[in-house]
């Protein structure tokens, strides 16, 4: 590259690094399923189960709108069986409603325990998964990029400032740039 006065100068930095970030967000993903032979009854049971979970969460201080639907579907369900001649036939076994929900809340292990206890005592039986992450993923990514670029360019003052931001976190993210 020719060094002309007034021309733009570019610095390309390549490297692999990792950063850790302490979680500040807990997400509980739940799945409620109901199945009956009657569509109306399936929908009534599905509505009842979601309301049991919602009321349990409200009773311990969660906002009503905190529980969000992320997927909802109703399907017919069938079994395969052999008839008298040995041929497979499909037999209707009912309507199946699946309702996936999520609840996001600040990272707090005591609050998480209270929430799980309330869900378990609600009378509904959802399957659930718990995930921990950071609310502002973009900020962590930007901080990591700045840190690694400064390190590669030998700018210890900048990298020290960025490192102070980064050390407040503890979840692993791997960046390639």
Architecture blueprint of SSEs:
Elements: E1 16-20, E2 25-36, H1 39-59, E3 67-82, E4 88-106, H2 109-120, E5 127-133, H3 137-153, H4 156-166, E6 172-176
Antiparallel strand pairs: 1-6, 2-4, 2-5, 3-4
Helix pairs in contact: 3-4
Defining key terms:
177 residues, alpha+beta, Alpha-Beta Plaits, 2 domains, 4-stranded antiparallel beta sheet, two-stranded antiparallel sheet, 6 strands, disordered C terminus
Overview of this protein structure:
This protein has a four-stranded antiparallel sheet, covered by helices on one side. Strands 1-6 form a two-stranded antiparallel ribbon. The chain starts with 15 loop residues before the first strand and ends with a strand. Helix content is 34%, strand content 36%. The chain folds into two domains: 48 residues, no CATH class; 99 residues, Protein of unknown function (DUF541), domain 2 (Alpha-Beta Plaits). β3 and β4 form a beta hairpin.
How far the N terminus sits from the C terminus, by CA atoms, comes to: 22 Å
Mean pLDDT: 79
Name the poorly predicted regions. Answer: 156-177
Q: Classify the beta-strand content into a percent band.
A: 35-45%
Q: Mind telling me the CATH superfamily name of the largest domain?
A: Protein of unknown function (DUF541), domain 2
- Radius of gyration, CA atoms, in whole angstroms: 26 Å
Structural class: alpha+beta
Q: How is the main sheet built? A: 4 strands, antiparallel
Order of helices and strands: EEHEEHEHHE
Count the DSSP helices: 4
Helix content: 25-40%
**Which CATH class of the largest domain applies here?**
Alpha Beta
Oligomer: single chain
CATH topological fold name of the largest domain: Alpha-Beta Plaits
């Amino acid at each position: 590259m020719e060094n002309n006065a007034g021309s733009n100068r570019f610095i390309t930095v390549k490297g692999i690094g990792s950063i850790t970030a302490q979680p500040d967000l807990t997400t509980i993903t739940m799945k409620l399923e109901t199945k009956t032979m009657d569509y109306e009854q399936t929908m009534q049971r599905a509505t009842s189960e979601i309301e049991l979970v919602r009321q349990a969460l409200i009773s311990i201080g969660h906002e009503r709108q905190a529980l969000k639907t992320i997927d909802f579907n109703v399907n017919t369900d069938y079994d395969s069986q052999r008839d008298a001649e040995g041929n497979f036939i499909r037999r209707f076994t009912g309507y199946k409603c699946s309702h996936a929900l999520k609840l996001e809340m600040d990272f707090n292990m005591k609050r998480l325990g209270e929430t799980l206890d309330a869900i378990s005592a609600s009378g509904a039986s959802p399957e659930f998964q718990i995930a921990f992450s950071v609310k502002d993923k973009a900020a962590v990514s930007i901080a990591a990029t700045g840190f690694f670029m400064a390190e590669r360019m030998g700018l210890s003052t900048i990298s020290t400032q960025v490192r102070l931001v980064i050390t407040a976190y503890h979840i692993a993210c791997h960046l390639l740039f």
